[in-house]
Every structure is written in C-alpha cells, then in structure tokens.
Amino acid sequence: MDQREFARYEVVDGVAVITLDNPPVNALAPGMREGLMAGVERAAADAAVTAIVVMGAGAHFVAGADVRQFGKVRPVSTRASAAALEACAKPVTAAIDGYALGGGLEHALACHYRIATARARLGVPEIKLGLIPGGGGTQRLPRLVGPELALDLILSGRQLTAAQGLALGLVDTVVDADGYEALRAQAIAYAGQVAAVRPLPRVGERTDRIAAATSDPAFPASLRKAAPAKSLKLLAGRHALACVEAAATATLDEGIALEQALFNELENSDESRALRYAFSAEREAAKLPGAPVDARPDPVRSAAVIGAGTMGSGIAIAFADSGVPVRVLESSAEALERGLQRIRDTYATRVKRGSLSQPAMDECLGRIRGVMQYEDIADCDAVIEAVFERVDIKQEVFARLDQVMKPGALLLTNSSAIDIDVMAAATGRPGDVAGAHFFAPANVMKLCEVVRGPRTSMDTLMRTMKMGRDMGKTCAVAGSCDGFVANRSRTPMMTELMLMLEEGARPEQIDRVMVAFGYPMGPFAVNDISGLDVSYEGRKRRAAANPDYRKLHVPDRLVDMGRKGQKTGAGWYRYERGDRTPHVDPAVEDIIGTVARELGITQRSFSDEEILQRQLFASVNEACRILEEGKAYRGSDVDAMWLHGFGFPRHRGGLMFWADSVGAATIYRQVSQWHEAYGPRWKPSALLAKVAAEGGQLRELRGQAEPA
Ligand code: NAD
C-alpha cells in the first residue's frame, strides 16, 4: 500500500503536521513507519518548517503493532523510525489522543515533547504477548520515568491515564481538546512555542532519572527485588529486567542493541508463540460461523438472575460491574437475603483490599435489586436461571419465564450439564433459549460458555455472545451435551487424577507437577479451597444412575470422614488453625493405601511426565471426541475455554496448542496403549486417529457439524 495513505503531511504556520491514518486504531501496519520517516525527512529538509507534530487521525494516536506482524519480517522497525524521530534536528511533538500503546508509545517517547488529551491511555502491553517493547521502549522509558517505574510498566503492561502520565513525567502537558481538529490546533500552537528551544530534550540523552536510581547503593539488586516473582518466571519478564538494567548501566546504543537481540529471541520463543496464539484463539472464539456479517445484535440493557446462590450472586455482580442493572429473584425471603448479603460481602472485601472505591461499590450495589415476583422481572432484556441443578425445578422456572417475560427476552440457563432443549421445551419460544454457562466465581472467571441448543436461534446466540462480551467475558460456543465443552473436556483429567492416586501417585506430587507446568496452584490444593463435597453429590447421583460408573473412592472416603477441605481444617492436606498453608498428611496416604488394597491394585511410582500426560492426554482425547460429534466449532475454542474457565497456563497456549507441541501421533499412540491397559474410557477418538495418521494441527480442527 502507498505509504502516503498511512501518513498525511501538511504544513500549517511553519509547523509540519504528520497524521498517521490506519483505521480503526492506527495499528502499525507495514508502510506506516516508512510514511512517518518520509514525513520527518521532508520536514527536516524544508526551510520553512520550524517544528513538527506527529498525531493520529481519528480517536487514537497508535494502538500498537499489528499483532499479525509478529514473527514476520518487517522492512522498517519501530527501532529505526523512533530513532529517526529522536535524531531530528527540529523539535517533534507527539500529540496523543486515545491509545498510545506499545510501538505507539515508543514513537511518542522518541519525540521531543508529548502532549495528551485527558482521555489518552499510555502503556507498553507487549509482555502480554510474551514480548518486550522492541522499539527502544526498554531504554527510553527508564530514562524518562526512572528504572523502577519503567520496569513496573513493562512487566504489568498496564495502561496509564493522561493525568497519571503527567504526574510521572511521561507527558509534558495535558490539553483540553475534543477531537482531531481541536487537538491539531493545540498541538500546532504548542509546537510553535517550543520551536526555538535548544538543546532539544531528547529522552535518549537524559541522565537525571538514571543517576538518581543508581546513586542508591542497593541498585540494581533493588530493581530485581521490585519485580514480581511471577513475572520473572517468564522469559519475557527476565529479558525485560535485563534491558532495564542495561538502560541504567550502559549507553543508549548498547541498550538498544541488547533490546533488539532479546526481542528477536522472544519473538521466536515458544512462550511468545503460545501467548500470541492465546490472543488470537480468544478472538476467533467470538466469531459465529453463519452469522450475518453486518449483524449488530442488540445489547442487554437490563437483566434478571433467578437464584441467588453461589453462581447467581456472582453473575449478578458481573452484570452490576459492567453497568447493567440486574434484578435477583429467589424462592424465599431468607434465601434472597442470604444471596444479597453474599453480594454485599464480596463488594466489601474488594473495598477492603483497595481494588474498589466506596462510591464505586455503592454505585454497583445500587444496580442490584432483590425481588420475589416474576412480574417484577418481566421487562428485562435477558434472564439467567441459576437455580439448583434439577431438571424438574429448571422446567418449572422456564415455564414461568415463558408466561411473564416480554417477547424477545433472552431466556438463558447457567446449568452445568442439562440439555438446553429440556428447558426450551418448557417454553413456547425455544429459539430464545440458550445456555450462558459461567464459571465459579462468576464475577472473576472470564469464560462464558454459550450453549447452543438444537432450536436456539442465531439471533439469540449473537445477542448472548454480545451480552457476555459486554460483561467483560471471553465467549465461546458449545453444543448441548453432557457437560458441554469446557467441563466435558476437563472431566477425564479429573478422573485420571483420582485414579492415579489409587495406583500410587501422591496428591503433593501431582500438585507439584501441575505447578511446575504453570498452574498457580495444584488441583488438590484448589480442591481443598473449593471443597471436596461440591462434586461428591454429583458422583453419588451418577453412580446411582449408571451401574458401570467407575467410583472415585479416595475423595468419597475423605468426604465421608468429614475432610471437606480448608473449611474443615483438612482435606487432601492438613491445615493449622488460621493458616492456609497445606501440610502433607499421612492420614491421606493411609486412606489411599487402604483403597488400593481393597481394590487389589499394586501401587507403583509415577514419573512427573506420566502424571502430566495421563491427565492432559485424557482431556485431549475427549476434546477430539467433542469436535468429532460436532459439539464445538473449533479446536482453538477449547483452548479459549481452558484459559478462561480453568486458569490453564496462558504461556502454554491452551490444551490443544500444548497437545500440538507434543504431537497428535505421540498422543494417539499413548492413548491407544492406555486403552488396552485401562479399558473403554481411553478409547481413542477417531478424529485424533485421523490427525495422527494424516498430520495437521489439533488446534486447527473444525467441528464436524454445527454445534447444537
Ligand atoms: P446454589 O445451591 O448455590 O444456589 C441455587 C439457588 O437457587 C439457591 O439460593 C436457591 O434458593 C435458589 N433456588 C432454588 N430453586 C429456586 C426457584 N424455584 N426459584 C428461585 N430460586 C431458586 O447453586 P449454584 O452452585 O449457584 O448452582 C446454580 C446453577 O449453576 C446450577 O445449575 C449449577 O449446575 C450451575 N453451575 C454451578 C457452578 C458451581 O461451581 N457452583 C458452576 C457453573 C454452573
């Protein structure tokens, strides 16, 4: 594309204005840097120009690099275009509106002055993709705001407001300008004022902030200490630290050279590939095959939740947090009060922790209203049912909703496993019924699994996806089957976890393996927090309904003994009073040993690799079966679900991405062996067998039918 299309050039009152124009957010596409450099060169050569302004067309400066460009050759790097800006002999002012992120902020840092509107947002989010700023950002940021703050901004990827940027010295002034024309006029005036000032304030030449930091004898150890341990577990975090240290101890050129070398290494790292993939898998999951391209689904402006238990109260909070008024309906005044109290407690904890202000809490609580009559929710745009997981109660609720809700209202269920069509059949409008399956705690976990029943309409699906997105959730579609996609694909992993205990693995070993894999906590430590009793009743029900059901004796026995987790002081681990540190408990080993003896299982030792593979291969096989049955659109949707529903380590990409790193053929071979050893639950999926034989990526699999 012609570079001029990306960078408009004009001269007004002796000021050259370069306007970057790549809608919608001015991402740094190939050609844009070239256009910018050509503009700077032209202004430098024009004797009538005394100063330069760089700004974005539309509402943003530059929102960052085009994500698709990572891993590809770029003819001109941000490093080069930023260097050209800084080296210019005429003063360059960056005029920032909207986003100045990543490469956008790096260009602004290379300008001699930065002015910003109040709504500007500044940041370097590269770490989220397993990268560091690679356009001089790791060198200029420490020189401008000091090494410690720079490292914080690089490792967190967080955004600053213009006011925060001003206070930290990142911007020189905040201007009151609404829109492109107004900002342009102010920027031209500002550039005129500084046109004669020499020497030019080049960030790359600044030494004051560095000198202040390095005069502390604790430097650079203090810098290392300030970095969160979890950031330094990742290669990108460690490389960011090395670059910021170099900014404080080496010349600009040396620092830039190091940044370039480390950036290149990261760009080709497994970690960054996985993180970039995770980002695109989430975006892909939001796409609905068959949806009209020009569809603009209506937003949900008011919502109702039926049942104020664990899930209902979390969902109500999620609505209130996103600004949507929500009514909560319960079956009794006591249950309603309990639910509302849980909601108030959750908000109070946030205020106590400092993550929410008191006025913001009051505003959110003001959006939540408890009601006892269905007539009081009739005018809501959407209703989410979250009552007990019982078919008869759910049907009763949907029949009632059918009577009262206004035409077109979304009738949604948070059920974990019940066929959507069972609920739809209780209404005269099955097209309006779908699943909106949230994960506990619903106000925290980011997944909303949108379940499509056989009669769910495309409009309902689109509006439910939009509702989830507006609530800040990552949405992905599942077809209606037992456990849908997320829980169904995870259940085999949980089963193998328990069965490995009987065969000789220990909870603490399994937990250690999963933490080393990247989970923040091991599955047994997590289970002690959520409570062992939660899945106990479900297992009892399944065992009663199915004589072939393989009982999980170890957890059942722990619950029978009253070991329900942290709340009872013991579960998989033992806990001291008032302390959440898990201690290995010989009593658990005894129980496992007893169960193994009773079942006639000879215990053996497990390698860490076997523990990891046994769990995850079981789930990969099930995910392939799900795709085979056409209950999901894409393999990558499974990954979006695992990342946001179960906290799968993001730097591993997701279940299927990880599986591809192992290889479908290897997995198939092992699954087949375990099929022989353990029986039908390990029957290999035909789709897995196909990919193993023919090649291809599991993450790129498409469902074999429309999910329904
Ligand atoms: P819960 O027992 O904590 O809450 C259920 C609430 O529904 C109770 O407060 C109860 O008083 C109320 N209720 C029961 N019948 C009602 C009726 N007829 N009208 C109005 N209110 C009624 O249960 P939960 O854990 O919040 O689960 C709710 C739903 O969410 C279930 O379908 C469950 O399968 C699903 N779910 C649960 C989780 C989880 O981790 N707990 C996760 C995802 C989905």
Describe this structure in words.
This protein is of the alpha/beta class and 708 residues long. Helix content is 50%, strand content 11%. It is built from 31 helices and 17 strands. It has an eight-stranded mixed β-sheet, sandwiched between helices. Helix 4 crosses helix 5 (137-145). It starts with a helix and ends in a 14-residue tail after the last helix. The protein binds nicotinamide-adenine-dinucleotide.
**Rg computed from alpha carbons, rounded to a whole number of angstroms:** 28 Å
Overall number of strands = 17
Name the structural class: alpha/beta
How helical, in percent, are the residues?
Answer: 40-55%
Low-confidence stretches: none
What form results from the Cα inertia axes?
globular
Strand content: 5-15%
Q: What profile does the largest beta sheet have?
A: 8 strands, mixed
Q: What is the tally of helical segments?
A: 31
> Strands of the largest sheet, in order across it?
12-11-10-13-14-15-16-17
Q: Could you say which small molecules are bound to this protein?
A: nicotinamide-adenine-dinucleotide
| N→C terminal distance | 43 Å
Give average pLDDT, whole number.
95
Which SSEs are present, and which pair or pack?
Layout: H1 3-6, E1 7-12, E2 15-20, H2 32-45, E3 51-56, H3 78-87, E4 92-96, E5 99-101, H4 103-110, E6 113-117, E7 121-123, H5 137-145, H6 147-156, E8 160-161, H7 162-168, E9 173-175, H8 180-194, H9 208-214, H10 221-226, H11 229-232, H12 235-249, H13 252-267, H14 270-285, E10 303-306, H15 310-321, E11 326-329, H16 333-353, H17 358-366, E12 368-371, E13 382-385, H18 391-404, E14 410-413, H19 420-424, E15 433-438, E16 447-452, H20 458-470, E17 474-479, H21 486-503, H22 507-517, H23 523-530, H24 533-545, H25 553-560, H26 586-599, H27 608-628, H28 635-645, H29 655-662, H30 664-678, H31 686-694
Parallel strand pairs: 2-3, 3-4, 4-6, 5-7, 6-9, 10-11, 10-13, 11-12, 13-14, 14-15, 16-17
Antiparallel strand pairs: 1-2, 7-8, 15-16
